[in-house]
Amino acid sequence: MLKASALLAYASLGVAAATTFTSFHLREYRATAPCGFTEVGPAPQNKTLSLRLALTESDADGLIDALYSVSDPDSALYGQHLSKDAVNRFVSPQPATIEAINGWLEENGLTFEKLSPAGDWIGINVPVAQANKLFNTNFTIFRHIVTGAEVVRTLEYSLPDAIAGHIELVHPTISSDSFPDPTSMRAPYYHIVPSLSPNITTCLNQSTPSCLQELYKIPTAPAVNQNNTLGVSGFRGGAVDPAYIQQFLETYRPDVNPPANYTIYRIDGDDPDDPGISEGYADLEYTLSLATNVPITYYFVGMSPPNVLTTSFNLYPESVVSFALTDKLCQAYAQLGARGVTIFIASGDDGAGCSQDSTQFEPKFPLNCPFVTAVGGTQNVAPEQAWPGSSGGFSNYYPRPRYQDAAVTAFLEANGDRYIGLLNASGRGFPDIAAKADPHVIYAGVFYPVVGTSLASPTVASIFALVNDRLVSAGRPPLGFINPWLYKEGYKAFTDITTGESTIMCTENVTNTIEATEGWDPVTGLGTPRFDKLVDLLHL
Ligand SMILES: *[C@@H]1O[C@H](CO)[C@@H](O)[C@H](O)[C@H]1NC(C)=O
Ligand SMILES: *[C@@H]1O[C@H](CO)[C@@H](O)[C@H](O)[C@H]1NC(C)=O
Ligand SMILES: *[C@@H]1O[C@H](CO)[C@@H](O)[C@H](O)[C@H]1NC(C)=O
Ligand SMILES: *[C@@H]1O[C@H](CO)[C@@H](O)[C@H](O)[C@H]1NC(C)=O
Ligand SMILES: *[C@@H]1O[C@H](CO)[C@@H](O)[C@H](O)[C@H]1NC(C)=O
Ligand SMILES: *[C@@H]1O[C@H](CO)[C@@H](O)[C@H](O)[C@H]1NC(C)=O
Ligand SMILES: *[C@@H]1O[C@H](CO)[C@@H](O)[C@H](O)[C@H]1NC(C)=O
Ligand SMILES: *[C@@H]1O[C@H](CO)[C@@H](O)[C@H](O)[C@H]1NC(C)=O
Fold it and tell me: Most CB within 10 Å of its CB: which of 26, 161, 289, 421?
């Protein structure tokens, strides 16, 4: 009886709720479709959308505090990286969030799938008609003008007041990166330079593994600690032929036998037989030949994290990825950093970049994230100079992190006037460091000379993997998120690059340049690493 009346009360409440006006919070908005897309019309009401919801983390700020306290050399907790569980305690949504989301989904007859181990990402499948009501929006068909490819997205969406505090973002909705645009620059895939002969043997014109070993004093002696791993991010279409990698190593590291020791984890849906020349060859051939005997994992996805991770693809202009999505992904880098992972990412190959209206420099995702270490490019030897393609700049999303205050302020004080109006001087500056991006040879069936910051990140990652090998063998923690240490201390082991410049032509016949200068600059950062000096600085 009691039960029945309770049920009745609930039912009448439900009716009341349904007739009550639900008020909404606007969560994300964009004025127009991304460049290159046109609006076709409303999406079919019965089409099912697979949406991902990022739930509010328990203590996102706490995670960032924890990250800095294990990464700042002056902190009492320096090097005391967090366990996976400790990180998840910051990231997992609070019980109140889970309860609110469960109630809201149940009320709407929906179920969800947990997409991340910490439970901060969930997935729902929902018809357009219902999604439009849930998020007070109009999902729309957009067509890519050149390719005709169609996609269902929206220009804005809102969250009901009652759950607005529990959801950070809904994806894919407004972020340009989720509009499939095969014609946009997606990656700094190394550039092939067909005019150069792969036979050049001088280090002035070509960075072979032995040239890099000589320039940066990278030892050829094998690493000893098999727990100290180096992760190489793979990507779809990045399949590699192990025979090719073996061929490269036999050519450039004949002293190491057996040379190639790496583990491949395939990404779902990747074609293992993709025979194309891929970024994978550059990344694997150089890490394997420089980080001698460091266990290397290719296609790192959700495996236990390596001590160093190098990524040379998936760069976007900053404005292409919505701030909410950028921030969520940046937070994921912070999680890895807190666990002790050093994340190197190639800074990109188009200088300071151009905003869509060509009036300003355009920073890049994910280098704008203050928790990654961005690697720019250099060329030549004696002196080693800025490579003209080396990307750098200042974020419009993230303010300058404290760790780079002194270095970046010094650059702006000396040079700021020259770039007024072209860049946002208050933002996070990148790259942080650099390495050679001039012609390298890769083997992918034949020897190709290639250039790009894609080559620089694997070199730096190899050097730090070897530094970590010594640290870990001495019973010390790996370096983890290095930026606070780099700007305070580590830069002393780097060669400051003070000549050369990055160039970009945004408007016909107008070339913008940024010169490398003494100290930090947004072309080569703090400079290029010297293994021998790193080892001295760290008393190894
Ligand atoms: C959606 O509705 C249209 C028109 O009523 C129909 O032709 C189509 O088969 C439906 N699709 C699905 C997936 O139910
Ligand atoms: C959705 O489209 C309808 C019809 O054009 C319009 O009345 C409504 O205001 C739109 N809703 C939103 C949230 O834009
Ligand atoms: C480069 O090396 C290849 C193979 O060793 C050889 O066939 C070719 O003649 C060389 N080219 C030059 C310009 O030396
Ligand atoms: C090697 O590099 C120097 C300096 O950049 C350049 O002058 C020379 O032409 C290059 N030689 C070849 C063979 O590319
Ligand atoms: C590697 O890790 C395993 C498991 O944690 C541990 O037992 C072993 O002692 C470690 N080896 C070295 C050389 O640190
Ligand atoms: C390859 O690496 C694994 C650990 O990742 C190690 O156990 C094995 O001994 C290595 N093999 C060779 C031939 O060095
Ligand atoms: C400049 O960067 C700051 C963050 O440091 C940001 O708040 C501001 O909106 C940016 N300005 C522009 C014009 O994007
Ligand atoms: C760019 O320079 C070329 C060659 O000097 C000239 O023909 C062209 O008109 C210029 N374009 C613009 C937009 O000034």
Answer: 289
| Predicted pLDDT of residue 296 | 85
Query: Which amino acid residue places its CA nearest to atom 5 of ligand 2?
Result: 138
Residues 325, 247 share a domain: yes
Q: How far is the CA of 231 from the centre of ligand 6 (A)?
A: 15
pLDDT band at 421 (very low <50, low <70, confident <90, very high): confident
Nearest atom within ligand 8 for CA of residue 509: 1
Range with lowest mean pLDDT among 195-204, 300-309, 416-425: 195-204
Q: Is the peptide bond before 272 cis (omega within 30 degrees of 0)?
A: no
Number of folded domains that form the chain: 2
Other C-beta atoms within 10 Å of 180: how many?
Answer: 15
* Cα 283 to ligand 6 centre (Å): 19
Does 353 sit in the ligand 6 pocket, CB within 6 Å?
A: no
Angle at 115 between CA 112 and CA 118, to 5 degrees: 110
Ligand closest in space to the Cα of 397: 7
Domain annotation covers residue 83: no
Which pLDDT value is given to residue 10?
36
Residue 77 belongs to some domain of the structure: no
- 246 with 365, same domain: the answer is yes
Q: Is residue 459 assigned to a domain?
A: yes
Rounded to the nearest angstrom, the distance between the alpha carbon of 226 and the centre of ligand 5 is 8
Rounded CA-CA distance 364/325 in Å is 14
State which of 178, 200, 234 marks the end of a domain: 178
Domain of residue 471, residue span: 191-537
Left, alpha or beta for 53 (phi > 0: left; psi -120 to 50: alpha)? beta
Residues 314 and 214 in one domain: yes
On whether residue 87 sits in a domain, the answer given is no
Over residues 478-501, the pLDDT tens digits come to 999 999 999 999 999 999 999 999
Q: What integer is the mean pLDDT of 328-340?
A: 95
Confidence class for position 399, pLDDT limits 50, 70, 90: very high
Q: State mean pLDDT over 205-225.
A: 93
Of ligand 7's atoms, which has the minimum distance to the CA of residue 400?
A: 5
Cβ neighbors of 21 (< 8 A, separation 6 or more) are none
The CA distance from 169 to 159, in Å, is 9
The model's pLDDT over 103-162, given as tens digits with 9 standing for 90+, comes to 999 999 999 999 888 999 999 999 999 999 999 999 999 999 998 999 999 999 999 999
Q: Are residues 155 and 204 in the same domain?
A: no
Structure tokens at 24: 């909404």
Tell me which residue has its CA closest to atom 2 in ligand 5: 227
**Residues annotated as part of the active site:** 279, 283, 454
